[in-house]
Specification:
heterodimer, A: 158 residues, alpha+beta, four-stranded antiparallel sheet, 9 strands, B: 125 residues, three-stranded antiparallel sheet, elongated
Chain lengths: 158, 125
């Protein structure tokens, strides 16, 4: 018998996702934002941040293009499957995210997901969950972040 | 909103027979599955669509979960709700022609139109 983590206990992001999916605590939401290319800090710096406020406390910033806004996902937008006990993993999916009519300005560098336990959409409340490379130069057209077939997050045993 | 457990044949990857609904969408509330979820449901055989409804197959002897299809993925005007043709040029022209100078009522879509990349379903039974 090896040391192991049970499939039902894989990943804190999974729990955040379930919290939003089941609206427990009430008002819990998932947020999706975009970080600008200019001033972006290293992975080593960004991964240590505990809130979205801390994420942009240094030189890293959210983009400010006209047409951009933080996306907010509630329970109705999520579909949770219990752990995939055949493959010993948890895959989490969200719909593709489209920002419409995004004007030129900041270059886009990364999509960042967050968990807002109180639904305040206040940066100090939002816990960063994942960052995904997303290099785009806005030109006034729509921009879609296409989520991978397996979803935006996969939890597996180490 | 819902949480599903996919029930496999004999516990191996030989196919999903149905879904066990762990957390269900209350009747009257919406669910917004992505096309990937819909495709997975078709491929695995636990979802059917037709006559304006989506039906989730649950265990034998239990009632299936039925949803009305309120909308399919597409581009919508945030001002008047009109479903617009594909492409941002058509949407931007619609907003400029019909809602010029008006602030978008949708904070998440300041351009005045949105693209829904999901099916909008409402649980009916």
């Amino acid at each position: 018998m090896a040391n192991l983590v049970f499939n039902i206990a894989l990943g804190r992001v999974t729990q955040f996702y379930i919290n939003v999916d089941t609206n427990s605590p009430a008002g819990a939401e998932m947020t999706v934002g975009v970080l600008a290319t200019t001033g972006i800090e290293t992975d080593a710096v960004l991964r240590d941040t505990d809130t979205w406020s801390a994420l942009v406390a240094g030189t890293t910033n959210f983009v400010t293009n006209a047409g951009y806004a933080i996306k907010v996902l509630a329970g109705a937008d999520l579909t949770a499957f219990t752990p995939d006990d055949v493959n010993d993993r948890v895959d989490l999916d969200i719909p593709d995210q489209t920002w419409t009519g995004v004007a030129a300005g900041d270059g886009w560098n990364d999509v960042v997901t967050g968990y807002d336990p109180v639904g305040s959409q206040t940066l100090t409340d939002i816990i960063p969950m994942s960052i995904h490379d997303f290099v785009v130069t806005p030109d006034g057209s729509d921009i879609t972040a296409q989520i991978a077939a397996a979803g935006f997050y996969r939890a597996t045993p180490v | 909103m819902p949480t599903f457990k996919r029930i496999f044949d004999n516990g191996v990857d030989a196919g999903v027979t149905h879904l066990e609904v762990v957390e269900e969408t209350p009747v009257g509330e919406e669910w917004h599955p992505s096309p990937r979820v819909i495709e997975k449901g078709f491929a695995e055989g636990w979802l059917a669509m037709g006559n304006g409804q989506a039906v989730i197959k649950t265990a034998d002897g239990e009632d299936d979960h039925v949803y009305d299809i309120l909308d399919t993925p597409g581009v919508f005007c945030s001002h008047c709700g009109l479903k617009l043709g594909g492409g941002n040029e058509i949407a931007q022209e619609h907003v400029a022609t019909n809602h010029d100078g008006e602030d978008s009522p949708d904070e998440q879509n300041p351009a005045g139109y949105r693209q829904d990349n999901f099916f909008r379903l409402e649980r009916v039974s």
